[in-house]
Request: fold
Amino acid sequence: MLERLIAEATVCDFKEVLEVKKPKSWLKSVSAFANTSGGTLFFSIDNDHNIVGLADPQKDAEDISRLIKERISPIPRFILTAEKEDGKNLLVLFISKGSHTPYYYKADGIREAYIRLGDESIVHQITFFMSLS
Reply:
């Protein structure tokens, strides 16, 4: 499965561990994927594209679902699957391109929408126009 994914790109992002205490590190990618073309986050892949393995994929899956529901608004459509490759556990999170954009990351008084630009998730400056008629 992973041999065809050689680098982080517009629709692919790798995370070595699930950051529960600093979830913005990966939730901004969730927002960006939902706001652009959709994409996939792989949890348990290091910077050299090696699978490091997750100790408790069930707990990690529960944390991922909970944090998306708590901190992304509106909640995007996503599919979360547990995989085993080379005897190591990983989680694959697919986020669909959203139809109710923008999708915001919200926490600690911050409300930001992200977009995916190449291999980065960047803050999207959104301008709203109001009709005065």
